[in-house]
Structure formats: structure tokens, C-alpha cells
Automatic annotation (TrEMBL):
It comes from Scytalidium lignicola. Residues 50-73 have a biased composition (Polar residues). Residues 34-73, 233-262 are annotated as: Disordered. The lineage of its organism: Eukaryota, Fungi, Dikarya, Ascomycota, Pezizomycotina. Residues 250-262 have a biased composition (Basic and acidic residues). This is Uncharacterized protein.
Amino acid sequence: MFGMDDKKFRLERFLNDPHHTLIGYPDRGVVKTSAESSSKPVFVPRYPPQRTTSGSEQSTISHDSSQLSEPSSVTSLDSLASQILTGQPVHTGFGERPGPDPQLGIGTMSAIGHDYYLPCPLFDIMDCRFRFHPDDIERWILHSESHFHPSGPPPKSVCNFCDQMNERFDSTVTGDRYESWLNKMLHISQHYALGDLPENSRPDFFVLEYLKRIEAIDLEDYNNAVAYTERPPVDGLVDSDVESPSQARARREQQRRERVVDDLAKEKRAIRRAGVRRR
């Protein structure tokens, strides 16, 4: 077994000496002797750079020492690693390592472009303004769980966008509250990817009850959140406990009919009259 320093030395020697073959590394090329100059060997790279030529040019190519020569400079091990990590084209005796393809996006460090972002799921309840790039979905989920620390995510929740209650995430089904919350967050991320906007989301009343129970929000914030309604504003619309004048009159009349008056004096007189008649 070779140590790290020994491997580095052998690789540097291999990269800088085209005529030296090391055990454990492929042969870099072959050495030919030109007919015109037998004193100077000609190095033919194992993977020469490709070159497009016409048929007439291919028939007239001469492999002499003026056309095939050793590369003027061979990259050292440290600079080679640096070029590979930065995505730059690498020139060695093996040929050229192509740089990043802008059309394929391979080799680049830039994130995929998205026209949406992932807001904190409690942005409207706890006034949290954190938002994340779609590629940072794991950090987005971890951030959402931090609002429930140290109690953990709620045992039950629903989708904030779906009209039906079919998308319900219940830990009694999964057996794990974190898994249920993860499923909800992944489901919501798909809504954002499809174009749903944060301002069109609804409050999750299961989550609201849980936040109040663990005292993550106060009663005022809870009451403001549960007052959410999708009913459009209507002129003259009042609360259900408001009584109109006609309703008040009807109520008083009904109470009058149902009222029973106990007159003790009248009852005593009736008792005396009944006794006189018996005599």
C-alpha cells in the first residue's frame, strides 16, 4: 500500500514525465522516432485533441516531428485539482478535459432557475418573513419545525390550499409527527411549484389550536387567525346575534303570552268563597 505522499509523488512524476510509465497508472502514450530526425523522440498523446479535417487534408497529413511534439507545459497535480474543482478546461498528456457545457448546465455551480419561492408556512400567523429557494427545501422544512420547538410539529394538519379536507396529515396514521409534517410540507411545495401564491393560502385550524396549546401564540393572535373567512363583504350584513326591531317585538309578545302571574290575594279570596259554599 502506498501512502498519500508517495501517491502524490508518483502522480506528479507521471504527469510531468511523458516517457515514464508507473505501475498502477495507464500508459500515457507511445514514443515514435521520426524518419527525418532519429535523434529526437516524438511523443504521441494517448488521447490527442480531436480536429475536424476534410478528406484531402487527411490524405496529406504527415506525422513528422514538426507536427507531433510534446506538450509545451504539463499541469502539476495541485493546479490540475484546482482546475477540475473550478470547472476550467484541463490540458494534460491525456488530452483536454472539456469545460462546463452552458446548454446542458453540467459542471456549473449555479442553481436551477425558478420563478417562485418557499415562504415560511406560518408567515401569516407568526409574522415570519423567512423564505427559501426551491432548491433549499430541506432548510425550509427545518425552519418550519423550529417554530414548534421544543414540543415538535403538530400531530395533525391539513393542506392550506386544497378545497376539500382529503389532504389531511395525521400522525395516528403515519405513527410519527415529524413524518406527517414532512408530508404536508412536501405537498405544499408542489402547490407553490404549480403557481399557487402564499396570499391565497388558508389558515390550518389544527395548527392554530396546537400553537395555542403549546403557548407559541397568545389568545389575541389566535382569535385574529380563526376569524378568517372567505365570505365576500355584503352591504347591511350583520352578525348572527344582532336582533332587528321586528324580531324584538315578536319576542316580547311571546314572552307576554307565556307569562304566568301568581296573585296570592286573589287565590285567598277564592279559597274563602269555596269554604263558605261547603257549609
